[in-house]
Design a protein that fits this description.
The protein has 11 helices and 6 strands. The protein is α/β, with parallel strands linked by helices. It starts with a helix and ends in a 32-residue tail after the last strand.
């Protein structure tokens, strides 16, 4: 275990709203790295075993050192076949592991589809539209959960003023965003205005926003996993969403003029609502 890894973990502001869902487990792992660095991977393995989660083809989830990935074996194929997620000492893989515990069904479904594509097409040459979309989801997705069709339209039509200003009170009541992509989480260790996620829209019943946090997370995980298993995926399945525009997530966005920056909040094209 390197001191550099511990230093990078120390840069995470766990009070930031985009890390809130991961903070309890993330801080526990962070303490392990600082106090017992040799036990970091052991801790991930222990928690994976206790969880009972599985990967894409039903193998029990665990975490292995990157060096234990056999030479010439595709990353996703190995995870599906063995359950072992190759893990390096860096922020990227740290956040990847956290997402596995937060949304295990979605991660397993993405892994299953990736493994199937690799089995069919191999890993040489172009990855193709489906595999690119699966990777985009895994790396950079945000989950936009809403019970309001008007908020869905505002997002896909790039109507930033409606989404973030005139309907500001809807956030937390009729819509919310959940971070999923581990590369996006890594970027947000050092947030910047243009940091943009690829939003996967989830239509929720109105009562969703009255459920407990645990019930909401379980429903989101199950619902998205079922959708991703069957969806005909490509990059058009997502809508861009500048993360620091989310009300309450960045102090500067309390000023409506924040959203006037067209370098970030672009007019864009109209998308067909999925």
């Amino acid at each position: 275990m390197t001191n550099e890894f511990g230093t990078r973990l120390g840069r995470i502001d766990w009070s930031a709203p985009w890390f809130a869902a991961f903070a309890e487990r993330g801080m526990r792992w962070q303490r392990t790295v600082h106090e017992r660095p040799a036990d970091y991977l052991v801790e991930l393995q222990r928690e994976a075993h206790a969880s009972g989660y599985t990967t894409g083809r039903g193998a029990p989830l665990t975490f292995i050192a990157q060096d234990d990935l056999p030479v010439g074996t595709a990353y996703e194929a190995h995870i599906a076949a063995t359950g072992g997620v190759p893990t390096r000492e860096n922020l990227h893989d740290f956040f990847n592991a956290l997402v596995w515990f937060r949304y295990p069904r979605v991660k397993a479904t993405l892994n299953a589809r990736q493994a199937s594509v690799i089995e069919r097409d191999g890993i040489s040459g172009s990855r193709g539209a489906l595999r690119d979309a699966l990777t985009l989801f895994d790396e950079n997705a945000v989950l936009f959960v809403t019970s309001d069709a008007a908020m869905r339209r505002a997002l896909v039509e790039f109507d930033w003023r409606r989404l973030f200003v005139t309907e500001r009170a809807a956030w937390g009541r009729r819509c919310e965003v959940r971070l999923f992509g581990h590369a996006l989480l890594e970027k947000l260790v050092e947030p910047y205005k243009g940091c943009t996620g690829h939003a996967w829209i989830v239509d929720a019943p109105p009562e969703y926003f009255e459920w407990t946090a645990a019930s909401q997370t379980a429903w989101v995980d199950e619902t998205i996993a079922a959708a991703v298993a069957e969806a005909s995926l490509d990059s058009r399945a997502f809508a861009p969403l500048p993360v620091l525009g989310i009300p309450g997530w960045w102090a500067a966005n309390a000023d409506p003029d924040f959203y006037g920056d067209e370098r970030v909040f672009r007019r864009g094209r109209r998308l067909d609502a999925r």
